[in-house]
Amino acid sequence: HCHLGTFILKPAAYGAAATKLAALAQRAQQELNLATRYLDLGGGFPSANTLKGSFLPGPDAVPDIDEYAEAISEALLGAGFRPEALPLLVLEAGRALVDEGGYL
Q: Is residue 48 part of a domain?
């Protein structure tokens, strides 16, 4: 499991994290014969809400969720896992999912 932070606006950060977690999983398999069943990339996905102090409206500042999916899947599919050994991907959608549903 990892957590990059909150309101991460760079999909490439998730690609880098996925690459590092995949490398750790591969190393655990090679050196310790431990199979990794899942990789949890945590949360931090931004919502489209406009944050106080933002120069751009939320929908203009926040990358599309597809960009995050592409960065993560590209990293994991390129990590060298055998198809049957590809770990389950776990994400914590958090703010990106629920921010529109309420306010403080």
A: yes
Q: How many CB atoms lie within 10 A of CB 92?
A: 15
How many domains is the chain built from? 1
The answer to whether residue 2 sits within a structural domain is: no
Would residue 6 count as lying in a domain? no
What pTM value is reported for the model? 0.84
SS3 track for 30-51: HHHCCCCCEEECCCCCCCCCCC
Helix 65-77 crosses helix 11-32 at what angle (to 10 degrees)?
Answer: 20
- Three-state DSSP class for 52? coil
pLDDT tens digits along 42-89: 988 888 777 677 777 667 778 999 999 999 999 999 999 998 999 999
Q: For residue 19, what are its two tokens?
A: 């690459």
Q: Is the dihedral of CA 46, 52, 58, 61 positive or negative?
A: negative
